[in-house]
Here is the input.
Amino acid sequence: MTSMEGPAPETTARAWLRCYRCWSQNLEVQVHYEGIHKIDPETGERSEVVDELQEAVVQCLDCMHDQPHLGFSGGRVEPIEDRWERMIAGTPWVASCTVTVEADDVEICSGPEAGDALSYAAFGEYGVREFFTHVRFHKHEEDQIVVHLLVELYARSLEEATEVLESAARGALTITSLAEESRPPASAGEAHEHD
Here is the structure.
């Protein structure tokens, strides 16, 4: 196996099978399964699936970040088509922004879970799973809440970063600044020797 230098070329079959932050290939999938199955009265074996739910999260064992560009299906890790190229070939962008949401869309706005609740209200699943968000503060304006955030996301250009923020926002978005950052040091092609 050869190490890859910089962003993976399109011709590499598994360019996506790495951490988007530190580029390590030392990944694990955490699968949570719940199922209801009928039991065959003759054999005691499962005879029919009534209901089942499987959730999986791929995580990097080196930097401990979740990998939202990877999913788990049919017993294997696979890239999520609408984001893996952007996250692997892209660079981090940091935005200072506000999102104005309906107050009813915010589960809680004080206490230890407030940051996650406000991030989710502002950007949905992106806010708690793909973006790194820091809620600076929020303010109530009648029946709306204005959430002021710093957001780190991965994109290949300023236009793509803006588009991703706009499509993820669950309310009126105002971007006050958006700047490209450098990738974390391990992205420079450092080889990771993990079996």
In short: The helical segments are 84-89, 114-130, 158-168. Residues 131 and 153 are 5 Å apart (CA to CA). The chain has three helices and eight strands. Confidence is low (pLDDT under 50) at residues 1-12, 187-195.
